[in-house]
Design a protein that fits this description.
By secondary structure, this protein is α/β, with parallel strands linked by helices. It has two domains: 130 residues, Alpha-Beta Complex (Aspartate Aminotransferase, domain 1), CATH 3.90.1150; 213 residues, Type I PLP-dependent aspartate aminotransferase-like (Major domain) (Aspartate Aminotransferase, domain 2, 3-Layer(aba) Sandwich), CATH 3.40.640.10. The protein is built from 13 helices and eleven strands. Helix 6 links the parallel strand 3 and strand 4. It is globular, with a radius of gyration of 20 Å. It starts with 6 loop residues before the first helix and ends with a helix. It binds 4'-deoxy-4'-aminopyridoxal-5'-phosphate. The site of 4'-deoxy-4'-aminopyridoxal-5'-phosphate (PMP) has 13 residues, from helix 5. 4'-deoxy-4'-aminopyridoxal-5'-phosphate binds next to helix 5.
């Protein structure tokens, strides 16, 4: 019966990070530094826990389909914008494609980049135009703009996963000046950077900016994503979304998390400090990063050789082998808690080329 599975799922799927518990058991380690998924090592804010627990007692009711509390909290935090929400930014990406792209139409991505744009588009019958990044993995506007001519929707990830670099807002503006399709700017890691793309929303009604509570806000396990969207887009997104998709506990926790500015500041300061430390202390080239991770060039090792070697020493990082358009000698290392980062630096120093 396996042959009845759709072609797109026969050949590829999302690549998950290895399980820290299993790696620990496999190598007989007491503790493992979890640096493969770009999570926040701090537990959620007390405010998030408080509102999340309170919402549990109402779990006999469906969530508010308009997510008014979360919407209000987002407006209070960011200003008078239009928002949509979803089950992680993954959910927002999937619903955005479902809203805009017919089977057979094209999306554009800038490779190497986050894989889910492609996977979600293919699963929904769309095609994918891949535009390679230029030197230092920077986005070159001209070929990207050209590819957008044939497309319905384009994705740009900034700061980019897995390379870590951000694209300057002026470059995004230049692209927006020349395209007619919708641009989805993935800002999953923007809280760890100095980049600000929100002023662009005033000038372009084909811009969507995706954000997540999984990183800076420590709520990866609750799966909350949102996006700043043009006003015209919102009602159609709501039609396309799975009904009641974002659960009430997660939405309430997100409201609490948004109110705790200190929590995000702590994460941001730790990331900025350790990004610098890693670039100074690893004996392999570390690429400049605006995110809560860095990409490391481990050549002459392959990505998987480095990941295996580090895992044996209790440090779990992400192999970049599966990222399309990237040579096979990079790993992605999340900034973790202090002890994890220290353990990581030590493990790299003992990694044999
Ligand atoms: N975009 C990027 C660039 C990501 O790295 C991730 C998560 N790894 C996501 C989106 C999805 O985030 P979420 O947990 O909100 O689904």
């Amino acid at each position: 019966m396996k042959r009845s599975v759709r072609g797109c799922y026969q050949s590829e799927g999302y690549v998950f990070a290895k399980n820290a518990g299993e790696i620990g058991k496999q190598h007989g380690l007491e503790r493992v530094a979890r640096l493969a998924s770009n999570e926040n090592p701090d537990p959620p804010s007390d405010k998030a826990l408080e509102l999340g627990f309170a919402a549990l007692s109402n779990a006999n009711r469906y969530p508010d389909e308009r997510q008014v509390s979360l919407n209000d909290a987002l407006m209070a935090a960011h200003g008078n914008y239009h928002f949509v929400t979803g089950v992680g930014m993954d959910g927002v990406i999937e619903t955005t494609i479902r809203t805009l792209v017919e089977p057979g139409e094209l999306i554009v991505v800038s490779t190497p980049t986050f894989s889910f744009y492609r996977l979600s588009a293919i699963a929904q019958g769309a095609g994918v135009a891949e535009v390679p990044r230029g030197s230092g993995f920077s986005v070159e506007p001209a070929p990207f703009i050209e590819a957008c001519e044939e497309a319905k929707l384009a994705f740009l990830c900034t700061p980019n996963n897995p390379t870590g670099n951000g694209t300057p807002p002026e470059v995004i503006r230049e692209i927006l000046e020349h395209i007619d399709c919708v641009l989805f700017l993935d800002n999953a890691y923007v809280e760890f950077s100095e980049l600000d793309y929100l002023p662009l929303l005033r000038d372009y009604d084909n811009l969507i900016i995706g954000r997540t509570f999984s990183k800076a806000y420590s709520l990866a396990g609750l799966r909350v994503g949102y996006a700043f969207v043009p006003e015209w887009f919102r009602p159609y997104y709501v039609r396309a979304a799975t009904p009641h998709t974002l659960n009430a506990v997660s939405a309430a926790a997100a409201v609490g998390a948004l109110s705790d500015v200190k929590h995000v500041k702590t994460a941001r300061e730790r990331v900025i400090k350790w990004r610098k430390e890693l670039s100074g202390r690893l004996e392999y080239p570390v690429l400049p990063s605006d995110a809560n991770f860095v990409m490391v060039d481990v050549s002459p090792l392959t990505s998987d050789e480095a990941v295996e070697g580090l895992a044996r020493m209790g440090v779990l990082v992400r192999s970049c082998r599966s990222f399309r358009g990237l040579k096979d000698h990079y790993v992605r290392v999340s900034i973790g808690a202090d002890w994890e980062n220290t353990m990581c630096i030590d493990a790299f120093s003992r990694l044999n080329p």
